[in-house]
Amino acid sequence: MSHARPLDPPPAAGTLVLGISGGIAAGKSAAARALAGPDGWVLSADALAHEVLASPAVTAKVAAHFGQEALGPDGHPDRAALAAIVFRDPVKRELLEGWIHPAVRARISTLLESARAESVPVVVLDVPLLFENDAAHDLIARCDALVFVDAPAASREARARRDRSWAAGEVARREALQLPLGEKRAASHFQIQNDGDLDALHREAERVLDALRTPPAPPP
């Protein structure tokens, strides 16, 4: 992957769209909320995917193709049970993603249009595999700037084990299947360090926003 495209001047008015990436368990969602601030929007692909998965249409498909064992006591798809099924069967995984991903992409596009119509100041796209899946969703071209969230590998490993109950080494195993972090970092316009507390993260976010709000110096 090449280095980041030249940074265009941010919109003088209207909606600033930021795309966020980083390592697994680097704190991308927390950074997205810090960048959006109280008046901005975070468009979380994971949250939207949960909504699509729980919809009546997808619930019916899950029951028909994967059986009642893929549903929870409430009759909605059980994400843990589904994950156990699809991650050992690539065909079933592709089937499930085919129901969910197009709907999520369409929802993101609709929400981006709504944000611009409502003059939302900042929209942050919190989309897993933003770079890896760009050929399918084409969201990078819709971003005014790309932000990479950085955190030490040991911190990310500890977060994943504490917050996600992942086994030791699982972060490294999954990242080996993705675009190298160095390439994502090089393709981003800004970096946010997330190796401190929440106040430090907000200061990092404000630094990025200040840089985007500062008009570029006129040519000599």
Any chance you could write out the topology, listing elements then pairs?
Blueprint: E1 16-22, H1 28-36, E2 41-44, H2 45-54, H3 56-66, H4 79-86, H5 90-117, E3 122-126, H6 134-137, E4 145-150, H7 153-163, H8 170-175, H9 181-186, E5 190-193, H10 198-213
Helix pairs in contact: 1-10, 2-5
What would the CATH topology of the largest domain be? Rossmann fold
Largest sheet geometry: 5 strands, parallel
Total beta strand runs = 5
Indicate how many domains the architecture comprises: 2
Our count of helices gives 10
* Strand line-up in the sheet with most strands: 2-3-1-4-5
N-to-C SSE string, H for helix and E for strand: EHEHHHHEHEHHHEH
The overall pLDDT average reads 89
What does this structure look like?
By secondary structure, this protein is an alpha/beta fold. It folds into 2 domains: about 15-40 and about 120-215, 3-Layer(aba) Sandwich (Rossmann fold), CATH 3.40.50.300; about 45-120, P-loop containing nucleotide triphosphate hydrolases (Rossmann fold). Helices cover about 50% and strands about 10% of the residues. The protein contains 10 helices and 5 strands, in the order βαβααααβαβαααβα. It has a 5-stranded parallel β-sheet with strand order 2-3-1-4-5, sandwiched between helices. The mean pLDDT is about 90.
